Amino acid sequence: MERVLYIDCFSGISGDMMVGALLDLGVVGIEDLRDELRKLDISGYHIACREVMAGSIKAKKFDVEIDLPQPERDYRDIAEIIGGSKLNKAARETSLNIFRLIAEAESIVHGCKIDDVKFHEVGAVDSIIDIVGTAICLDRLKIKSFYSRVVPVGSGFVECSHGRLPVPAPATIEILKNVPVCSGNFNFEVTTPTGAAIIKTLVKNFGGIPCMEIEETGYGAGDSSSDNKSSGIPDVLRLVRGVTKDEYKFNEDRLIMLSANVDDSTPEIIGNLMEELFRQDIADAWVESIYMKKNRPAFKICVLCREELEKKIANMIMLETTTLGIRREKIKRYLADRELKIVKLPYGEVKVKTGILEGKVINISPEFESCKKLAEKTGKTLKEIYQDALLFFSKK
Fold it and tell me: DSSP letter at 354?
């Protein structure tokens, strides 16, 4: 059994939305959070959490109010405040990882060293509290795996200390590299740099809700000044906490699929390529018959391989065919467990592959090369050996 958290950021994500949703899960109370935050060498603020209605959804709104003027802080200052605190190690590390992402993005955008990055909105006390508050709550949850939907970022422009900037903000774009995003049905900013850094630090798997048993949900409200009426989407972040169990799990691997269309080659050349491909350590390869422009018959070559092999396989396809371009996709493949068994027949032995799911055999398939060799040796037909292999396997 594994404890998981799904970040359902259908209306974007910010630091205060994340803390509000975590508090709504009920793992940490507001007083407990106050006590933990006092371990930071920061004063002149107070926090509050209240219930609000975001459209028709009841949610928690987390607020940080500044009571006293605060000094300007750079990344080095913030790292020292968090690193020198008495927070639990996991909370410190999570907080520092989130701030590091933001600092790296800001340094790229503004062309300065990371330690010299001056934090304005992001480095203000409220953002420090949002990030550290998130880390404190997550430390209590003991989550093993984080998932998220594709991240909506919004569109339009936003006013900030650097002036009028496009949405998503440049720092947000930098942080969300290699993360699946979309603009969503929003003409304003819905994912902040802090929210983007939280997602990037925690999440490795993006898409729909994973196969899990739901235990609890929490809703964190966004800034009430954000008008979502144009989209009709409640301004909330939803967190779904649950567990995955062994009976829900599939084996899975992540592969690269390379594909190319070839309309000026012969079957012999394509056949030779397939033989060469299967001599490599690929997961699978196949050829599809397709029609291209002017109803011209063609071949579509598809190969599944590991990422470290993709350049070698792409070169093979280029060299062995006339194609000038190859498409690349990331693929997640679900797998049943597999076993290869030896079945003794009255006249010899053959190999039989079995597919196993949740401890049960779901598929039985005599191995072709093994059956073919026995057919050549005994003079029996391949069909007879297939039938005998299945019959004797079922008697084991």
Answer: E
Cross-strand pairs, 188: none
Whether 18 contacts 198, CB under 8 Å: yes
pTM above 0.90, yes or no: no
Banded model confidence at residue 248, pLDDT cuts 50, 70, 90: low
Residue 125, CA atoms < 13 Å, CB-side half-sphere: 19
Read off the tokens for 268. Answer: 């012999």
Alpha-carbon span 130 to 147, nearest angstrom: 20
Q: Which DSSP symbol is given to 149?
A: P
Q: Whole-angstrom distance between the N-terminal and C-terminal Cα of the chain?
A: 33
Structure tokens that stand for 120 in this block: 């304005």
Strands across the sheet containing 337-345: 337-345, 348-357, 360-366
Report pLDDT for 227: 44
CA distance 287 to 266: 13
Query: The tokens of 76 are what?
Result: 């080095």
Amino acid identity at 153: V
Domains of the chain: 2-248 (no CATH), 252-335 (3.30.70.1380), 337-395 (3.10.20.300)
Distance between alpha carbon 190 and the CA centroid of its chain, in Å? Answer: 19
Mean pLDDT, residues 214-237:
79
* DSSP designation for 209: -
Question: Nearest CA to 54 among 228, 190, 285?
Answer: 228
Q: Given this model, what pLDDT does residue 338 score?
A: 80
Prior bond of 168 cis (ω within 30°):
yes
Contact 343, 391 (CB under 8 A): no
Helices (DSSP H) in the chain: which residue ranges?
A: 15-25, 30-37, 75-83, 89-110, 125-141, 170-175, 193-202, 267-277, 310-320, 368-378, 382-395
